[in-house]
Amino acid sequence: MQKQCVECGEAMRGRADKKFCGDYCRNAYNNRLNKDANNLMRNVNNRLRKNYRILQRLNPEKKSKTTKQKLENLGFDFTYFTSIYTTKKGTVYYFVYDQGYLPLENDYFALVKNNS
User: What angle do CA 36, 39, 43 make, to 5 degrees?
Assistant: First the structure.
């Protein structure tokens, strides 16, 4: 009995545990299988990358201050960040990888970079 490719159904020769006739079918099968998860992750990662680039651009010296309006004008999305750091005093910093921001009064933000 001859095995068939899982993706295209073509007859295969070779190893007994072979599932695909070639790289194209293997990639097509796995891309189709992971499509929904990949789209979600790709969209989230794109938003995180954009937020990171904005913070990096506005904070070249590791500490700076900016306004909420400036962040929003550049397309910053406050719902996407990678971690939250709370100090002993209860101050909450939001981080996108090593770039962080702290909401201040009057729609100002302190921008920081974590060195560790």
Answer: 145
